[in-house]
Amino acid sequence: MVALKAVAPTPEQEGAGAREGTWPHQLSHDPELRVSDVLEQLSHEFPALSSSKLRFLDSNGLVTPHRSGAGYRQYSAADVERLRFVLTRQRDEYLPLSAIAEQLGDLDAGRVHHPVGPRAVGESASTLTPIALAHAATVDVDIVEQLAAAGLIEQTGPGRYGPEAVPLVIAGAAYLGSGGDPRSLATLARAARREAELATDAARPRRARGDDATADTLERARADAAVALFSACVHDRIGR
Length: 240
Known about the structure:
Blueprint (H helix, E strand, L loop, with lengths): L4 E2 L4 H9 L15 H8 L8 H9 L6 E2 L5 E2 L2 H17 L3 H13 L2 E2 L16 H8 L3 H9 L15 H13 L4 H27 L3 H27 L2
Antiparallel strand pairs: 1-4, 2-3
Helix pairs in contact: 6-7, 6-8, 9-10
């Protein structure tokens, strides 16, 4: 654990802190990251972190992301480090949110100092190379290459995949192993993405009003219904 260090800021430093917004002042506050990006960056440190946890911290004023015109939360590099601070204090010191909020207030005002490590702006340690992804999914790397060519998985950076690609590779490998061909797999992937877009569209009015909980429920219900319908249609044709 790294302790907070009390400092006595000059009036010039206090003014600079106010101009640069909330702590950490030295990192970018540009809202460039989606919820999925934040979860990807922090999941290796905090495996239980979820979108609902992010909403909870937002509603309690600990980490307040930017809202897009459609109501989606967008985070900055500074927000990610702020999240890391909050989650670490909860996990390692069992501090209540009120105590963490006080510490953040001191950091915001420049009354205390807390170092920011290079991990806040570096590449996420949770990304996987094709070989690492194949190992995690217990498949050959050529399967990963086939699934990428079919559009089932997408890179998060040059030669890197996020951990969310692991279950896709496992499912895709099972499909190919059952006799499915890459062209049919690509068709299925496109249909799945289309259904995901429709589920997101169905929830957008609620999300735009700030009702994320209901929006998430609607989104999951629409997605689950699509999966159930697809399964029923396939099995109905097989049974004829």
